[in-house]
Amino acid sequence: MNNFSDLLFIFRFMPVFFIIYIMAPPKRRSLVLCLGSLVFYAFGDFRFLAVLLAAVIINYAAGKFTFEENRIMLIIIAALDAGMLMTFKILSQYVNSSLLPLGISFFTFKMISYQADLYMGKFRKQPSLLRTATYFVMFPQIISGPIMRYDPKVKNKLWLTRKRDKSFGRRVADGLSALEDGLSYFIAGLAMKVLVADRFAMFWNEIGRIGYDSLSTPLAWLGAAGYSMNLYFDFWGYSLMAGGLGVALGYPFITNFDQPYAADSVRDFYRRWHATLGAWFRDYVYIPLGGSRCGEAAVIRNLFVVWLLTGIWHGITFNFILWGMLLFAIICWERFLAERFPGLFKVLGRLHVYILIPLTWVIFAINDFRRLGQYFSRLFPFFGGSGIEGDFVRILGTYKFLFLIGFLLMIPQLYQLFLKYRKNKIVTVLLLILFWYCVSVSANSAGNPFMYFKF
């Protein structure tokens, strides 16, 4: 049930939770959200509920000291949180993959940023245990982000009562209005996941069944493009669904995915892709190390640390470390060399996004060194071998409409049209039809978990 596209979540958890949440008095909605989120997490993996609760309580208790600008306590609790994350990642990698608690990479980063913000005096007072716990465990974000910061200035409009009308009917009407708006994002994300991302996952699986050493070069490049779209629509779909659930709860929409393939460089790409993760590393690693305020050598060091940690955050296998280091090298190349020639870089930066990014995703996808070598030998067949003749034409014939739809959906203006007209009555009807079609497809397929769940 921890998968937002799971029918159990859509038709059991979500309706029951939102009925209780909307009907509850505003002062009790934080409690409803906290308890509902713990139930959601327990259904996902009850074994690690105690780990989550212990981390919440320890971080709240430590926050009393970090709020008083106790630097030693900040270092201790940050080390404990990071140590917990690394311990479970090592256990999952070298003992049993089932030993990775759901969402640990995400709720751990929220805890570390919470402690850092307390220490830096961003809050007038430490939030209550309930507010703190709700921030750590809220179900739209706990599994795969976004990594929202605790900000007392961001008000949940459904927790605030109207000065002139505090009636039950008015509160329910406000709740239903927020739910309707949130569901428009949720349905759009569901369609991205079920109708597009899962189809690209089938394409990538077919590439694997052929065997990487048997691919023709054109098909290997098509495979890189297909996996890039698989990850793109999977994560964009999740981000829309998570953001929509947040809107339905009364929060502002969090933009975690901002048309990354419209970027003009790899640097710009990672400001747009998983934007809250990139902002976390910027604010809590890069800037504390000195950011861009120091000399070139120190900036390169800071970038190295950020991208090494980014790779480790995704996983401790060699391919994630290699992925992070390759992106570090590309970004240094862009920043310190290519950008010195602005006219040329306008073209070169785009080529980086359209060519280099898909190649890095291949490294991201394949965690076996031998098989990764096989794939790149087909991408760049300098040592002979032609693969299976005709495989490109055959598979492109099967998936050509999927690629066409994928390319169309990547046009930023289409998403802007959705944002502009999502509350239009005709669009609402179309979204309703799209929802039931997605449900029909999900009911007749096994369904795939979101790709970022494994992190």
What does this structure look like?
The protein is mainly alpha-helical and about 450 residues long. It has 18 helices and no strands. Helix 8 packs across helix 18 (about 425-445) and helix 9 packs parallel to helix 16 (about 390-410). The longest helix is centred in the middle third of the chain and has 43 residues, at about 170-210.
Keywords:
455 residues; mainly alpha; 2 domains; 18 helices; globular
Specify the structural class: mainly alpha
- What proportion of the residues form beta strands (DSSP E)? under 5%
Radius of gyration: 23 Å
Q: What string gives the helices and strands in order?
A: HHHHHHHHHHHHHHHHHH
SS element count, helices: 18
Stretches where pLDDT is under 50 for at least 5 consecutive residues are none
Number of strands: 0
